[in-house]
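Recall from the previous chapter that SMILES is a line notation for molecules. Here it describes thiamine diphosphate.
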Amino acid sequence: MPLTNEREAELTEQCRQFRIDVLTAIHGAQSGHPGGSLSVCEILTLLYQEVMNVDAKKPDDPNRDRLVLCKGHAAPMLYRNLIEKGFLPKDSMATLRKIDSQLQGHPSMHTPGVEMPSGPLGIGLSAAQGMALGLKLNNSPARVYAVLGDGELDEGTAWEAAMSAPKFGLDKLTAIVDWNKVQLDGTTDEIMPIRDLPAKWRAFGWNVIRCDGHDLQAFYKAIEDAKAFKDGPSVIIADTVKGKGVSFMEGQAAWHGKAIPDEDLAKAIAELGGDR
Ligand SMILES: Cc1ncc(C[n+]2csc(CCOP(=O)(O)OP(=O)(O)O)c2C)c(N)n1
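With both inputs in hand, we obtain:
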């Protein structure tokens, strides 16, 4: 069943608001990662606000779904989603990257709702796989989502996990690659060509689903298809745009990790439909 038109419109509006809030917080901190936070907006928002079974009132529920943000530098978009789910106070975005804040530059176990610290790229999929294996041994209905960057796939450890998850038949594990084709200081093609990414995952034994990672309906269908596949893990290769939603950030490695000047924040907010 697709999302209803009404639900799709609500989630679209949330994505617009979350983009503004995330950029405002990065501007306030004068440090952070705008590009990769914007590209993963629909992915994290659909998962947290629609798909995943997580409840801030039952954070230790053994049957909760888990998400590992392997590309931990996109933490502001994770935090904005956790706020919406009630894990963090509504005004906490303003504390991003401040000393003693629960919202550090990269996810930490001190932050309610975070399942796995991340920042060093390449390790998150192994952690997610371990969670999925433990849950499977306990016959848990919980699902595990691992959100990776394409530049992150330059790390060999990611491929160790890619090789072993099919061996264990982890059908409740879904990896999602935010394939925005840009990494820290250049395009993925320039730095380490990834070539036929879907074929690579297929060769490792994964059920491969490809979709537009900014199209909520398409991504929702991909999640449903992953849930329906019972013969092993699925990977959703989501075509995305780094900096999505702000014209002068789109596709630009320069906006990977950069403090946002006042005038650029104002321009970005205007493009995103202005004040909330
Ligand atoms: C092991 C490791 N090496 C290097 C870095 C520095 N680093 C942070 S983000 C990044 C680029 C990541 O690119 P990608 O995964 O495509 O992220 P996205 O474009 O989605 O933001 C790099 C090299 C790191 N965090 N961890």
